[in-house]
């Protein structure tokens, strides 16, 4: 007789149900990801959910609730490494965060299934699907809303382009004009822009500014002798 038949049927059946629940819930999540052509699609989410369910169920079978608790902790850290593999940084942009978070949630779905909590597994699945679908219109609406610089915490920089020989005076002038406009400078650096040009970059300590005021400062700087171009930029905080 095969060895797996030696296990009590109720335990074997319980494990089978846990894996089936994890498979179905992972399929629901993965189908939406596959439809949107994400890096981690149907098969990846199913495997994450089933794997998490299998490990948690194994922990329960071997040492009961304490074993399942320890297994869940290892599943969480293990999925963290897997999620890190789908996160890519391209310049100032970071891609894959939503995919990594979805994989993490798929593991939670599987963990609930492996712990014999199928209803909770279903609830998490519904929450994940809602976050990836129902919130999309709200995200798009927010992204289309113009940024109010006065209400957004961000890092502001003022740049002035000049010749290498004139970098020192331009740096002093940049600091003086910004402080006159009540925008203290937190840091300043000179960046080479070819053989005959440098860019003096001042980082402001303020996290909110009036765009019109910085426009006036840069316009005034652009008229100063030796400054070829002046502008400012903003980077929103993480």
From TrEMBL:
Transmembrane residue ranges: 12-30, 42-60, 72-88
Record InterPro entries: MgtC-like_C, MgtC/SapB/SrpB/YhiD_fam, MgtC_SapB_SrpB_YhiD_N
Segments forming domain MgtC-like C-terminal: 156-232
Primary localization class, coarse: membrane
Domain of life according to the entry: Bacteria
Domain MgtC/SapB/SrpB/YhiD N-terminal: 19-139
Keywords assigned: Cell inner membrane, Cell membrane, Membrane, Transmembrane, Transmembrane helix
Membrane topology classification: Multi-pass membrane protein
Protein task: Virulence factor required for growth in low Mg(2+) medium and for intramacrophage survival. May be involved in regulating membrane potential by activating Na(+)/K(+)-ATPase.
Matching PANTHER family: PROTEIN MGTC
Protein name: Protein MgtC
Organism of provenance: Methylobacterium jeotgali
Taxonomic lineage: Bacteria, Pseudomonadati, Pseudomonadota, Alphaproteobacteria, Hyphomicrobiales
């Amino acid at each position: 007789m095969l060895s797996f038949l030696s296990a009590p049927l109720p335990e074997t059946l319980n494990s089978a149900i846990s894996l089936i629940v994890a498979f179905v819930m992972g399929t629901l999540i993965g189908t939406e990801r596959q439809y949107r052509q994400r890096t981690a699609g149907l098969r990846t989410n199913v495997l994450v959910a089933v794997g998490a369910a299998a490990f948690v169920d194994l922990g329960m079978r071997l040492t009961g609730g304490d074993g399942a608790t320890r297994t869940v902790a290892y599943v969480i850290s293990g999925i963290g490494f897997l999620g890190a593999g789908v996160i890519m940084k391209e310049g100032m942009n970071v891609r894959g965060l939503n995919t990594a978070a979805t994989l993490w949630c798929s593991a939670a779905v599987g963990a609930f299934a492996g712990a014999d909590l199928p209803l909770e597994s279903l609830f998490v699945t519904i929450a994940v699907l809602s976050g990836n679908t129902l919130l999309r219109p709200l995200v798009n609406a927010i992204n289309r809303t113009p940024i109010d610089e006065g209400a957004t915490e961000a890092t502001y920089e003022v740049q002035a382009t000049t010749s290498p020989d004139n970098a020192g005076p331009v740096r002093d002038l940049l600091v003086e004009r910004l402080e006159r406009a009540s925008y203290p400078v937190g840091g300043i650096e000179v960046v080479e822009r070819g053989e005959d040009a440098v860019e003096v970059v001042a980082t402001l300590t303020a996290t909110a500014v009036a765009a019109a005021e910085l426009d006036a400062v840069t316009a005034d700087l652009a008229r100063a002798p030796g400054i070829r171009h002046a502008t400012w930029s903003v980077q929103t905080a993480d």
